[in-house]
Amino acid sequence: MYISMADRTGGKKDTETAVSPSVQDAAFRLSPVILWLGIVSMATDISSESVAAILPLYVTGFLGLSTIAFGFIDGLNQGASAIVRIAAGWASDRTGHPKRVAVAGYGLSMLARIGLLFAGGFVSLIGIIAGDRIGKGIRTAPRDALISAVAQPQYLARSFGVHRMLDNIGAATGPLLAFLILLLIPNGFSTVFVVSLAFAVIGVAALVLVVPDVTTPRAVKHPKRARPAFTWSQLKDPGLTRLLVTAGLLALLTVGDGFIYLVLQARDSFAVQWFPLLYVGTNVVYLALAVPLGRLADRWGRVRVFLGGHLALLACYLLAAAPFGGLGATVTCLVLLGLFYAATDGVLAALASRLVSPEKVATGIGAAQTVVALCRMAASAGFGILWFAIGAAPAMLVAAVALAAALAATAVLMRTAQENTSQESTPQKQDTGA
Asked: Which domain holds residue 135?
């Protein structure tokens, strides 16, 4: 199925500057494309998160590797996608067919799931995780560009929130399946890998067969013109630069979820088979809050919500490092971590998509995601070494202090940030965070 943006917009650019007052007051309507993309992401996240939920235990317990080794693997899990994100976004913009680029990314991740069935050590696991994450890097920006293309501009963050909600139904279901498998089959890691592959196949099939091929404004406006190669100058918008610096600095201090869960498990010494439920708890909170926080971001300011999410992460660090534990403290940590993701993931994509021109949306989103992925890769590797050197709780306190300082700095940096030019419309001006 082929859908042109000209058919949907009458040939006009789909920017907030073109939104009339009557459109601004229109009721929210969810595009079927976003719904189907959410279903694709749901199946894919069942696949990926069922593996992610057992990875810390698989590496440190089953394979017997150190926290430094897990830090390297978790960093690769966070950042391997960064090497292709901008390139994938640029390819999406250049071809004008984001779906085709997304299919390549989802397909590569599916192939990596097959490799998990045969992984037997550290080196093979590194290669498989790298392939899976590169697939994620290829698919993410084109997928988000599709969402941006079909969403109502005045409800952009809410539309991303709906997609993230569906995505995180899968992200909660995957760890729950892993928990049930390990409960029934002790050390049943290979069974988890088989289930993961099955859901990856379902996700790719749904994307190929059901999601329409929506084209970008540039592809419609200049169908025969040769498109220029990517240059870094395309990303030199002052507002986007501030966003990239802000997101990168905060990502450098974002400890991987697996480390937070290992800290909680070490402090409270609960049984290993309960470990995947920590991922379930975080993702349930995420899916419950994704849409409400998307609506709040559209109304109150996307920058404010984005920084507020990092305040929740700071509180999670402090609680995880506290000497007291118990069920209440663990659940509160999961709530704070889910709140962090709900307030930052889709909101970051919404911010980036409004800081570039319509024909460069995927490139802008890919740039933001690349910076975050690279910085989180460094954060995971660094935290693994810090834990090995000074212990779990002290390392978490160091991360909390550094994050608090970074939040103060980035709040000042983003105070005057604009989502577009000084001539942008009122719906964009509310997102400055000032």
From this structure: 30-209+233-420
Question: Dihedrals φ, ψ of 63, to 5°?
Answer: -85, -15
Query: How many domains is the chain built from?
Result: 1
Choice among 84-98, 195-209, 333-347, 388-402 with the minimum mean pLDDT = 84-98
Taking only Cα atoms into account, the Rg of the chain, rounded to an integer number of angstroms, comes to 21
- Long-range contacts of residues 422-426, Cβ cutoff 8 Å, at least 24 apart: 423/17, 424/16, 424/17, 425/16, 425/17, 425/19
What's the chain's average pLDDT? 79
Per-residue confidence (pLDDT) for residue 312, from 0 to 100? 95
Beta-ladder partners of 214: 3
The amino acid at residue 289 is L
Inside any domain, residue 288: yes
Instruction: Give domain status of residue 9, yes or no.
Output: no
Tokens of 121: 């050590």
- Does residue 5 sit within a domain? no
**Assigned domain for 17 exists:** no
CA 433 to chain CA centroid, Å, is 22
Q: What is the pLDDT of residue 250?
A: 92
Domain with residue 249: its CATH number is: 1.20.1250.20
**Could you give the CA distance from residue 316 to residue 321 in angstroms, rounded to a whole number?**
9
Strand partners, 325: none
> Whole-angstrom Cα distance, residue 167 to residue 169?
6
DSSP, collapsed to helix, strand or coil, labels residue 28 as: coil
Residue 64 buriedness (CB in 10 A; 0-12 / 13-18 / 19+): exposed
Q: Which residues contact 64 (CB under 8 A, 6 or more apart)?
A: none
pLDDT by residue (tens digit) across 126-183?
A: 888 888 888 888 888 889 888 888 888 888 888 888 888 888 788 889 989 998 998 8
> pLDDT grade, residue 96 (50/70/90)?
confident
pLDDT score recorded for residue 69: 78
